[in-house]
Design goal:
With about 160 residues, the protein is mainly alpha-helical. Helices cover about 65% and strands about 0% of the residues. It has 5 helices and no strands. The chain is elongated and about 60 Å long. Helix 1 runs antiparallel to helix 2 (about 35-50), helix 3 runs antiparallel to helix 5 and helix 4 runs antiparallel to helix 5. The protein has helices spanning about 5-25, 35-50, 55-65, 65-85, 125-155.
């Protein structure tokens, strides 16, 4: 049974947590964090939403959200980015960093990087795919626990 305070706090905090998780995923190649940490933060925001909503609402929402598909896309995308390095004859070679690729692929500055987002090459893409895999996996775990606990409670 959730109270009005919990529901109101969740409505305020959940969007902030989801945005912060996205920020950590997208800026992981420049700041502490990355795909795993951002995916875990994002999944905690989804877990907060799962726990504070009713069983039927959560079940119907996540029947439409294919978490296993997101997890598979994350894993295959990460491996695909790693295999791009074979174009440079090395697995995981960061071939986009100095190629002039328009998104996340500008020329890497010499010396200290002043924080340009477009100099990460393949790293931001890998963070996005890892974040997608982690958020789908952790959310699936929380969702299964939630559905099992609610079903058992309803059977009492």
């Amino acid at each position: 049974m959730t109270t009005t305070i919990i529901k109101t706090t969740t409505k305020i905090l959940a969007p902030l947590i989801l945005v912060f998780g996205s920020y950590i995923i997208l800026h992981g190649h420049l700041t502490p964090g990355g795909g795993f940490q951002g995916g875990a933060v994002f999944a905690s925001g989804l877990a907060l939403l799962i726990v504070t909503n009713k069983y039927d609402a959560v079940k119907s929402l996540f029947e439409k959200a294919p978490l296993s598909v997101f997890e598979s896309i994350g894993a295959l995308g990460f491996l695909g980015m790693a295999c791009l390095g074979f174009a440079g004859y090395t697995f995981f070679k960061n071939i986009i960093a100095n190629s002039g690729f328009p998104l996340f692929g500008g020329k890497t500055p010499t010396g200290i990087n002043p924080g340009y987002l477009n100099t990460g090459g393949t790293l931001p893409y890998m963070n996005i795919f890892v974040g997608m895999k982690v958020l789908a996996g952790l959310t699936s775990i929380v969702l299964v626990f939630f559905l099992i606990m609610r079903r058992e409670r309803d059977e009492w």
